[in-house]
Amino acid sequence: MASDGGLSRIQQRLNAIPKRIKEAVYPEVLKGAEDIATDMRHLALQSKDTGALIESITVTPAGGTTPAYSQPGGSTVASENAAVVTAGNDDVRYPHLVEYGTSHIDAQPFFWPAVRLNGKKVRNRLNRAIRKAVREHWGSK
After folding, report:
1. Taking Cα atoms as reference points, which of 43, 33, 50 lies closest to residue 110?
2. Neighbours of 73 (CB within 10 A)
3. pLDDT for 54-87, tens place per residue?
4. How many other CB atoms are there within 10 angstroms of residue 113's CB atom?
5. CA 122 to CA 128: how far, in whole Å?
């Protein structure tokens, strides 16, 4: 059998990287989602009436189903290597009214400001985890 100069070994290792990256990155995805949810809960304190809105903010891990009537999305399944942050449930169907306001009340944004506050931090965390996973995998035998 002719030697391919190590090409098959390199291709095999390159094909294995995505699986390792997914395994290494997913805990960071969950941490990022929890950070966003924590900030949402903090920002929603300004609109606290009963506390139900704050309690309805949840993080749904991969494969899980978001609560019915949650915003944004309602009853959707989180895809592989994803975490979904939602506000609302069967009892709390008004997060969008708090976020954007109505003709009777002013907007009290809590959802998108939390996403924007954490965006860069979460992206950097994920990039670090990806670089680390690639480095570790490339160096292993």
Report:
1. 43
2. 17
3. 999 999 999 999 998 887 767 889 888 889 999 9
4. 13
5. 10
